[in-house]
């Protein structure tokens, strides 16, 4: 897909760019159970290599990113009948940090892309809050029409955020020097990587089912419903 152009938030605030979601062109024929099993093995291996690494993202930032995702998921329109509540996943966060540390403006690693969804954002200069880096993903809702039509250049960041069965997210942020972004070199950049499971954006599918919130919850869940999510 064609990435959205860089946008400037406000005077003195960073320019933010996003890259088309890695999950945009997935085919539903891929065996999901198999890919999830292999993905868990992959993240377990990453966790071992990160067990002694200092965290590059604060607890406050984790709560802000997770809260933003769940607010977006709870406010979809038309309303969702099967929207799951999203939780933070350390395995996904560690895999995101491993990739972010490469300071490459592309999705990866390639072997993991068939197992998880991934959204990227990069900014030059200062930003007020980490959620400033993901607001452009949410803004894609203006171009998305249920069930799967996009009238803009890209909607896949937003649809990954609101994919009903994607109930885990892990993100990482890294400072990068001389990073190559869209044909130019950014002397200073902040790269945000968010990884998702189970992955969304399956070709031809809607991100969620329309209906009364939580009316399509599985019986095993016990019937609880919070902020239009189960």
From TrEMBL:
Please list the residue ranges annotated as the SCP domain: 60-204
A single GO cellular-component term on record: extracellular region
Against InterPro entries, the record matches this protein to: CAP_dom, CAP_sf, CRISP-related
Superkingdom classification of source: Eukaryota
Among the GO molecular function terms of this UniProt record, one is:
peptidase inhibitor activity
Family assignment from sequence similarity: Belongs to the CRISP family.
Q: What is the name listed in the Swiss-Prot or TrEMBL entry for this protein?
A: R3H domain containing-like
Q: Does this entry carry the keyword Signal? A: yes
Q: Name one Pfam family in it.
A: CAP
* Compartment(s): Secreted
Which keywords has UniProt assigned to this entry? Glycoprotein, Protease inhibitor, Secreted, Signal
């Amino acid at each position: 897909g064609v990435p959205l152009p860089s946008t400037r938030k406000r005077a003195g605030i960073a320019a933010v760019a996003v890259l088309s979601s890695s999950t945009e062109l997935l085919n539903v024929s891929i065996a999901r159970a198999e890919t999830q099993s292999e993905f868990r093995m992959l993240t377990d291996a990453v966790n071992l290599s990160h067990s002694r690494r200092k965290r590059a993202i604060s607890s406050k930032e984790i709560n802000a990113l997770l809260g933003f995702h769940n607010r977006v998921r709870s406010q979809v329109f038309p309303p969702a009948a099967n929207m799951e509540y999203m939780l933070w996943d350390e395995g996904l966060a560690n895999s995101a940090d491993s990739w972010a540390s490469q300071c490459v403006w592309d999705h990866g690693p390639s072997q993991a892309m068939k197992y998880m969804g991934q959204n990227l954002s990069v900014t030059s200069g200062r930003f007020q809050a980490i959620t400033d880096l993901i607001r452009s993903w949410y803004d894609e809702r203006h171009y998305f029409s249920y069930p799967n039509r996009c009238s803009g250049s890209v909607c896949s960041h937003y649809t990954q955020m609101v994919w009903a069965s994607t109930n885990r997210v892990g993100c990482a942020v890294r400072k990068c020097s001389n990073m190559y972004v869209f044909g130019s070199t950014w002397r200073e950049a902040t790269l945000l990587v968010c990884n998702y499971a189970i992955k969304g954006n399956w070709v031809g599918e809607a991100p969620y089912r329309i209906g009364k919130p939580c009316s399509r919850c599985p019986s095993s869940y016990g019937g609880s419903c919070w902020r239009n999510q189960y």
